[in-house]
Structure formats: C-alpha cells, structure tokens
Amino acid sequence: MAFAGKGRSVSALIVRYGVLTVIAAIFIFPLVFMVVSSLKPDGQLLRDASSIRAFLPIGEISFDNYFAAFERAPIGLFVFNSVTITGLTVAASILVGSLAAFAFTYMDWSGRDFLFSMVLATLIIPFETIAIPLLLEVNNLPWITSEGLVTGWLNSYHVQIIPWIGDGLTIFLFVQYFKDLPSELIDAAKIDGANWLQIYWLVIMPISGPVIATAAILKFLIMYSQQYLWPLLVTQSEEYRPVMVGLQYFFQLNVAWGEVMAYLSIITVPVLIFYLFLQRAFIASIASTGLKG
Amino acid sequence: MTGSRQYRLARRERLAGWLMAAPALLLITVFLVTPFVLGLGLSFTNQRLVSPNPAAYVGLENYRNLVGLGVLVLEPERDGNGQLLLRDGKGPIYPSVRSFTRNNPDYPQYRGMREFTSFSLGQDRIVILARDVVFLKAVLNTVLFVLVVAPLQGGLALGLALLVNQRLPGINIFRAIYFMPVVLSIVVVALLWRFIYAGENGLLNALLSFLTFGLFQPIDWLGRTDTALWAILVMSVWQGVGFHMVIWLSGLQTIPLSLYEAADIEGASNWQKFRFITWPLLRNTAVLVLIVITMHGFALFAQIDVMTGGGPLDSTQSIVFQAVQRGYVRQDIATGSAISVILFVMVLSISLFQRYLTRERR
C-alpha cells in the first residue's frame, strides 16, 4: 500500500504478480522437488534432476522409498521421541513462563525488578556458547530412577526437556501481553476474594489465548525444527533421539537420495500442513517477537 | 486492625510472587546462568569431559593456544658475497618456516606455530603464523559469513517485506509462501540442498546449464574451497529470509498511513517516501533484524555438520563447529569452553556496536 501508485494499469499489475510469482517459485520449488523425488526410484530421480521433470510426479511413482526408509532407521521411534519432547517442553515452558510473567507483572515482591532485568539479559546468551559447559553439568547431575539415585543425565528424555523449560523469551512475551490487560480485572477478582493462584488460573489465563498461541508456536519451532546441536550432544544411543538427529542415518557417504527425500518428507510435510492451517498465527508469533524489541 | 491486615496481605503477596516466579528463575539459573559462569571458569582450566585427574588452573593458556599469532619476516638466503641465492633462476630461496617453529631456542615465541598465510614484501617474505590454524580459519569464516549474511539477508528481507506490503488481492498467499522455509528445520534444508548443489545430477547445475544453453560447466559447489562457504550462505539466506521479512513487515505496519498521504500531496516519489518516511521510522526494526541475524550467523553449525563437516580443506570451518569438535568430539571441555567464551564476547560486542551505531544517528 505504501508504494501503490494511482492509476494502476493492467500491465503494471501483471508485472507485479509476475515478480511475486517468480520469487514464490524460488521458495516453493525445492519443497516440491523434495516431495516429488521421494516417490521416485533413485535412477529416475537422478535422471530427472536435469529437466523440468524433477518437479513433476511422473514416471515410476511409488511409496517404495518410504518403506525402505522405515527399514533403514527406526523412524516411528524418532517421531515419537520428537513429539514427546516437543509437546512436554512446550506445555511446561508455557506454564512456568506464564506463572513467572504473572508474578513479574502484577505482584509486588522484593527483587522483582532486578530479577526481571536478569531474565531479559539472558536473552543475549546464544545457546551455542553454553552448550559445552552445560553438557559437563548435566553429565554430573543426579536423577532418580527405579534403581535409586544415579549420576548423569545423558541419554534420556529429561535431558532434552528440562533445560529448555525456563525460557526468557516466553516470559518476555507473556509480560508484554499481561501489561496491556486492564488492571480492573485483577482488582475485581481481589474484591471477590480470589487468591493469586485463582486470579492467574481463572481470570488471566483464560483470556491469554493469543499469547499462549504465540509462545507455543515459537517454542514448537525451536524444539521440533531448530533443535539439533543439543540432542546430538546428549543422545549417544538411538533410543532417545529426535527426528533431526535421526537424519544422520541418511547422510552417510553413499546417499540413497530417494530414501533421504522420503524421510525429509515424513518429518517435514506434517509441519508444513500444520503451518498452512495456522499460518496467520505463525506469522503473528514471529511478528510479536519483533514488535517491541 | 486494617494496618496489620494490609501488612499480612503484602507479606503474602511477596511470598506468593517469589513462589510463582521461582520455577522459572530456578531453571534459568541452573541451565543457563550456571553453565555460562561454569564455562567462563572452565576456560581457565584443563578440564576434560571424562578424566581421572582433577582439573587444574592454567590461566590464559587455552586462550593463548587458540588466538596466538606471530609474524615472521624471512630474509632471502645469500651466499658468502652477499649475493641472493636463486632457485633455478626463478626466485630467491628462503629459510624454512620449520627452522623457526621447531626447537629453535632463539625463537621461543614461535614454538609449535604453523604457517597460516604468507606474502612477499620487497625481497622479504612475510609469514603469518598461528598457534591454531584451524581455529583461526573458523573465526575468519564465521566473521565473513556474518558480514555477508547480515546485509544480504536483512536487505532481501526488507525488499520482500515492501513487496508483500502492497494491497493486492491474494497477497497473503505470497506472504505465506515466502515464510514457508522458516518452519522447516535448517537440518532438513541442508540435506535437501546437498542434492541441489551436487556436482553431478545437481539441480542447480542443471538449471544453470539450461539457462545458459549448455555453456555452463557443472560445479561441485560443496566440494570446492572457493564455493562451499558461499553455497552454505545462499542456502541459509533462503531458509531464514522469511523470518526477517515478517519482522520488517510488522515494523512497516506501525508507520502511520497519514505520513504517506501527506507525502503524496507534496508530490513525493516512491524513492523519496522510502528515504524520508519508511527508512527513518524503521530504525528500531533495523537494529533488531541485524542483531538477530548476527546472533544466528555466529551460531553457524548445523549446516556445516550436515553439508561439509568443515571441509574441503577447512574452508567451511565455523566457531561453533570448532567448539563442538574440541569440547565434545575430542572431549576437551576446557578448550571448547574457551572457544564459547570467545564467541560470546564477539556476539556481545557486535550487538553493542550495532546498537551504538543506530542510536547515534537518531
């Protein structure tokens, strides 16, 4: 709208849509290629790469690569691990983060302002700079198992979940949202005799849908799609590996490209469908991280 | 009566506040602040991941080993009359670098160093020595990556944001498509693009050959020292540009339309509107975008791990890749931590610098 001149002609419109479409092709064609290739046998896949056929589901089309991929790696297990780890972390980080944000926004307690600025300060620590010492730390932490107290958190679900629950960005997003809610809500609830936990759970959280969605989407992207270095460091056995680390089964020297594309499609297409349904919410969640930065 | 009741309530509020914030604060302290402080401490020791010996304090040793540099000026060798000794009439002969870096008691400062690069200056040959050639390479690659990615990705993202900020039917579909790679994992993207970049049967070579009517000779993009880092860079931009487009877009939408209407009345051109309205009002967004891209750029790891493993010939080494190599693969936690501290200082100083730059002009 900023640059829409008046008296727009038909040819100008065609140019606009032409530019938009060419750029869209750059973003979409690698994905089309991925899905289409997953349906082709390797020989045909490699031959097709030199022509437009690379993007068309023609020739010998089958799901053979998918069966082969499931034979090569325990894909079901990897998907289960990823879904478990992502789901639990997203839920826990929202609960813990919104509780803290509630205390930071509405309650008066000593140390509050200092601690909140500390939380904000942690946002500039890139995870990559603490990964190595964190690895040593979790390697020495105790954990209760059926055999009693054991030392070391490696090769487990909790080592992939617990360190990711406390999250400055989630707290920040909730504080931004809570600040804009009318304070009469809190006052009215107090007069009605509600305690703090009741105000949080019965008054504030039910009207926090938008920020919960935002925080959940961002955390989901971090835990499902962007998580790679940490699980690579802490899961030596395949039992606890998530899908992104499971990729390692497919990028050895002799790459069976058809199987690779099948695996990539398995772990990506559900997310893409999820995204297409919720794309407004996805885009809004990214936008809200930038609004008040 | 009311006073003591209010006091009781205030005390309860203090306690409740602490309790509600405690889980988050505890987790952040244990899993973020502690490893951060721990890493700083470990970088001054010789700690290993698994070791029978307790760690000892070694001072700045790890840092010295990582960033130690030396400059060696080699004078050409001469015969007894002071004449230059020439090799087959081609060029002068220089003493070998090894004679300085191996057990030469006169040059203890060069001991154990290796040649990073060299060039001629007059008759002399200047040799840059590094204690850790691979790490130096990783730092230079990462800095180059960030220096190119920040303006390129930020600029392209702004272009896309301006493009999809028009009021056209169906524009939301294009927004959604441009954002799509963001929801993909960079690991997935890296593996997918390995095929696109492949030397034989690669999609990119086929496309370039088609566009140039067969003139283009296929290139093994990830297998050559002069193209591998750039290939990874282009792919990273492709994957992340939609993210920053959305941040720019949210900045663009905070600009009041009335400013553009006023400019229209004054007869301003599109470029003038951008130069004098859009850009100045986007300054805060620009800082944010640059900081986020810089932090992502310095964290370069997954692409390297999946696509090249640091090769060919260390041309795609990165700082985080080195931190993982030392700290994890070689179980040298101390050096890994020192690399992490160096990385943090770089990220911090650059984001402070970016903030300073954009604040000054306001």
What are the main properties of this structure?
A: mainly alpha, 15 helices, B: 362 residues, mainly alpha, three-stranded antiparallel sheet, 14 helices
Can you describe this structure?
The complex is a heterodimer of chains A (293) and B (362). Chain A is an all-alpha fold and 293 residues long. Helix content of chain A is 66%, strand content 3%. Chain A is built from 15 helices and two strands. Chain A has helices spanning 10-37, 42-48, 64-72, 75-106, 112-121, 127-139, 158-161, 168-179, 184-191, 196-204, 209-226, 229-234, 243-246, 257-277, 279-291, and strands at residues 142-145, 148-151. Chain A has a two-stranded antiparallel sheet. In chain A, helix 4 (75-106) crosses helix 8, helix 4 runs antiparallel to helix 11 and helix 11 (209-226) crosses helix 15. The longest helix of chain A has 32 residues, at 75-106. By secondary structure, chain B is mainly alpha-helical. In chain B, 62% of the residues lie in helices and 7% in strands. Chain B is built from 14 helices and five strands. Chain B has helices at 2-42, 61-67, 98-101, 133-164, 171-183, 186-197, 203-211, 228-252, 257-266, 270-281, 283-298, 302-307, 319-329, 333-360; strands at 69-74, 86-87, 91-92, 114-121, 124-130. In chain B, the strands form two sheets. A three-stranded antiparallel β-sheet of chain B has the order 1-5-4, with no helix packed on it. In chain B, a hairpin with a 2-residue loop joins strand 4 (114-121) and strand 5 (124-130). At the A-B interface, helix 1, helix 4, helix 5, helix 6 and helix 10 of A face helix 1, helix 4, helix 5, helix 6 and helix 7 of B.
